[in-house]
Sequence to fold (208 residues):
Amino acid sequence: MSEHEPDELGSALRVLAADASVPPTLSGGQIRRRGEARGRRRRAAVATAAVVVLGMGAAVGVPWVMDGHREDRRPVAIDPSPSSAPVYVYAPPRIDILTKVLTLRPPGEKARSFHLTMSDDVTAGNAKVAFKNPKLKLPALLSTPPDTAYEVEVSWAVNLSLPNGEALYLVADHVSGIRMHPSVLRMPASDAKWVYDRLKVGDTVTLN
Fold:
């Protein structure tokens, strides 16, 4: 090693020492204030990012998290418009013994009228539905007097009991052309089935 090398090393060390001993250009208060400002900028950026994320979540309908509770945001159900369907009020069944027409309006249905094949001397009054039978044998008349009667089977028979004890029968007309007993009131088979299904035991049928 030459004699100049220690001097060069010492010179370099002195230069480094001198640089390290140079005081900072900013005071401690300035450095602290700059650090606080950077902290505030970071917090503001985080808060802005949180607001953007929450806003996007609301736009796509994802659940919100508020005060530690999960709140689902679902579409508000809209009540359908009121139905415009007519409401039919029940009316007791009635038989007009002059026009020979049965009118029946069950609950929630339109009124229907049916022409009956019946005698001219049916008694007026309020009859009760005593019983029903899908198949029943009733007397038919071949001639007068009624001692020449015989029985025929009828369908969808509804027994109507009058206050005087007289019985009437609403039945399907399967025996057209045969003279039935005056107590038998006949109607087409499809109509008889409709009436049979809607008249209930205990119902009142007005004859007038």
The longest helix spans residues 28-60. The CA atoms of residues 139 and 151 lie 4 Å apart.
